[in-house]
Hints:
The structure holds two protein chains of two kinds. By secondary structure, chain A is α/β, with parallel strands linked by helices. Chain A has helices at 54-61, 66-69, 86-92, 107-125, 134-148, 183-200, 244-252, 275-280, 303-312, 332-341, and strands at residues 16-23, 29-33, 39-42, 70-75, 97-101, 156-158, 162-167, 174-178, 219-223, 227-231, 259-263, 282-290, 316-318, 325-326, 344-348, 353-360, 367-372, 375-376. The model of chain A has no long low-confidence stretch (mean pLDDT 88). Chain B is an alpha+beta fold. Chain B has a five-stranded antiparallel β-sheet with strand order 3-2-1-4-5, with no helix packed on it. Chain B is elongated. At the A-B interface, helix 4, helix 5, helix 10 and strand 15 of A face strand 1, strand 2, strand 3, strand 4 and strand 5 of B.
Amino acid sequence: VPSTGNSLDTPPGDQQIEVSVFGPGFGESIVVHVGMGDWLVVDSCKSIRDKACAPLVYLRLLGVDVASRVRLVVASHWHDDHIRGLAELFSEAKNARFVCSAAVRLPEFSHILDLAEETLEVLDDLGIDQISQIGVTEITRIIQELETRQSGINPIFALGMREIWRRSSSRMPVLVRSLSPSDSEFRLSQQHLASLAFRMEKLVMAVPTLEPNNTSVVLSIRVDDEIGLLLGSDLENRSIPETGWQEVLNIWNGVGVRHDIFKVSHHGSENGHHEGIWAEMLVPEPIAVLTPFNRLQVPLPTTADCNRLRRLSKRVYLTAIPGARRVRFLDRAIERTIREHTNAAIRNPSYQGHVRLRANLGSHTWDLDLFGDAIKV
Amino acid sequence: MNPSTQTNLLTNGEGIFVTNFWEIASPPFGAAETASAPNAFGTQATKEEDTSLASTGPIIPSEVLGKPLLQLLPVNFPDVSGWEILKRYEGVVIAIEEEVVHARFKETADDFPELEAKIATSEIPNSQRALLREGAFLVWLIGYTKDAKGATRRESSFYIRRILRPSYSGKELNRNIRDSLRAIHWE
Lengths: 377, 187
């Protein structure tokens, strides 16, 4: 695999664009340097080694002043494979604007958060602090942090084709747009949340996940009309009109430059794939980066997913090997018991890696570095 | 406190929510399938909706009278006094497929990476399967037990925590997050 040989802690140049994708097998985070020392962070995950917020550790390693140089912190959606550590990152990034799906403004959403918080409080009072609903914990902490922030850096809710952030520098102008969720997704999300609240209000407590993937925030980042980055989050296709990737295509309608780099949606799954995106929104042979997801019976991406992606580009990179390590214990009795009483038991995440891409403005040649368990597909 | 007063409080339901929350008594460990299994009160509560702990006349041990209801139904319910516990996991059901429950477990709060397991539904006691749903709290115990002859056996057992929502009692939900979200100016 081609590699620049740069060490992990070498910061990008002032004129360099960087896209770093972290993905430990369960979780992902994208860190983007849009030049001139400005950074954006989309989602967060934890490092296996030190259990710390991976994007925060990386930015500190590069010597970035997180408090002043991180401009945007985006929660693409509230699944716990996307937001572990996001509140910690946001509380450090004092000058950053927070972005998430417009669904957060629905009364149903806050009602669910209240119910889930109540559940977690009860468990805590029972002395059970192992159970958490990461989505609830992280967003609650972010909301608390938002309350303390000064006006002028208000949070922004994302919708289809909405300008999220702009840097009007003549040297390196930047435009960040959200391409989802669509109006239809927003309405469907409201129905889903109302149904979830109804279920949660029942007698016995439970903490299900907050939102479906279809409220995911897809971002398009343009630097000086030359470089385009498309961050696909977990958006999937569905058969309902004006939703999913088809709606992104509809509203995109050929606006602006094509994208050089694609953070592949939903871990490369077939349901997150849309040929039209590759044909109309990406340059030929784009660089595609994806993260694995190990929770299902068959980890994502599958072999078929990898073959499909390889057909579309020769430059496809995975942040870690799909799959997870089997649980091991020093005590053989425990290990044997677990093996006998489960169909499968894994430590998740088990692998972690980092794909880093850098290019100078004016050049479409991207330097690649693969760290940890990252591989070329 | 007069024992009969306490019993009456429990019997007529007025005292149930005195501590705001409690775990509904589950059939005891190892006897989950038996309809006659008593809970910590010597009563039965086999249905999710059965909140009447004292419907068959509870026997309240004198040492627990006056204590919060939470303590009457301890966290490690059902009884595992005969066990030598090797591992105790608190878990959450993350998906239910046909005949398989997929759950995430932690031993301690900062246990990471987490343990994920796919468990055959048949591992969950029959009486608790109706409670299986995404987000349900699943406890997993691994340990040794001794039979009547003193022989040691390795055991694994799952049970679902059944915890009442405080607002079920009519208590108004504390709407901190709703109020906070209203106070934030979004663009």
